[in-house]
Amino acid sequence: MTATASPVSPLLPPHLPPTLPHPRGPLSAHVLDRLHGPPGQPPAGPLPAPAPDHAPPTAWDDDLQLALYLCYELHYRGFAGVDPGWEWDPDLLRLRGHLERCFLTELRRVTDPLPLPDEALAGLLAADPGGPDSPSHHLLTAGERRQAAEYLVHRSLYHLKEADPQMWVVPRLPHPAKAALVAVQYDEYGSGHPERAHALLFARMMADFGLDPAYGRYLDAVPAPALAVVNLMSMFGLHRALRGALVGQFAAVEITSPPGAARLAEAFERLGAGPDGTLFYREHVVADAVHEQQVRLTVIDPLLAEEPELAGDVAFGIAATGAVEDRLARHLLTAWRAGRSSLRTAPRPAAAA
Amino acid sequence: MSATEPRIPRVRLTERGPVLVDGPVEVVLPDGTAMHCDRPVVALCTCRRSRRFPFCDTSHRRRRP
User: Fold this and answer.
1) Number of Cβ within a 10 Å radius of residue A110
2) Which of A187, A285, A293 minimises the CB distance to B52?
3) Boundaries of domain holding B49
4) A29-66 residue pLDDT tens
5) Domains of chain A (ranges plus CATH)?
6) What is the ipTM of this complex?
C-alpha cells in the first residue's frame, strides 16, 4: 500500500531494528552481553538478579529499567544484529521475571491504597489532571525549544511504536470489550491510512524539531523515568494476568491526554514548530476526546460487567500509570528548573547524517 | 458486516459529554459550512465550550463558573 494520496508528503522511516544501547550497570551489561551471542545457551555466570531486600530503591534505577527495556524490545522490533530467538530464551525470560517482580512490587507499594475504579476514573476526569505543575504547563509558559526537543526524545520510545503495547491485550479480552478496544486502535494506526498512523505523525514532529525519527534512535539518551513509562505498558501488555491493569493504563492515557496535548500543541507553536511540529498533538486533542468516551463506555464498562474481579487491576493500571508519569514529570521539571538537560546524553540531530 | 440488513450508523448520547456518532460524517454548521470527519467514531461537542467546535476537546470537564 502506498501513501501517495496524502496531501502532505508522508515521512515513512524505514522499518529497521534499533542498535543496541550502552550498558548502565551490571544487569543491563549482563543482558547486552548475552544478546551479542546466540540464544539457547546457558549463561556463563550466575544471573545478577537484584537482591530482594533492595527491591524498592533499585526498581527505578537506570540499570534495571534498561535491562527490562532490552528484554521487552525483543517482542517488538528487536535489535540490529541480535538473534530474534532471544525473545523466547528461557534464561533471559527468567531474568526478565526477576526484574518484573521488582518493578511490580514497587508499583504496588507506591499505589497503595488503591481507589475504586470509579474514583480512579473520576480523578482522571478533573479538568486538568496534571495540575499547573506539569511539563506541558512549563513548556507553554517558560519552555525553551531545546526542552521541547528533549520532551520529544523522551516520548519517542513510546510514540514511535504508539498503540503497539496495547495490542498484546486484544486476545485476552472478552468480546464486546475486544471489539471496542480494536476500534480505538484502528484510529491510532490511521484508520486504514498508513500516513495518518499516530507513530508516523510523531516521526514528522521529530523531524520538524531537527531530530532523527528512526525507531529507538535515542535509547541511550533516555533516562530511567521515561523508560519506566514504556516498560509499564509492555509489562501489562505481555502478561495476561495483568490484562485489567493494561486496560486501566489505556484508559488513563486516553482520558488525560486531551488537555495536555492541547497545551503542547500551543507550546510547540510558540517555540517555532511548523505545521508538522504540532500535528501530532492537535490530532490527539480531538482523537483522544473520542477515545476516552469509547474506553470508558465500550471497553471498561463491558469488561467489568463480564469480569468484575478485574476491577482492582483496572484501578491499579490507572494508579500505576499516574505514578510513572508523575515520576517522569518531576524528573523533567527538576532538570529544567535547574537549567540542566533532562537527558542522559545530548541528542544528535538528524540533519548531520 | 451483516448480510441481512444495512448497517445503521449509531448515535450515542453520553451523560455530560459529547454525542458519539459513527463516522465518517459530514457536519454542517449553522452558517452552512460543511466539515468532513472520517474517524470511526466522532465526538460532537454539546456544551459549546470546545475550542475545536463542532468536535469535542474535553472542555466540558471544566466546571461552569
Assistant:
1) 16
2) A285
3) 11-61
4) 999 999 999 998 877 766 665 555 544 448 999 999 99
5) 117-337 (1.20.910.10)
6) 0.78
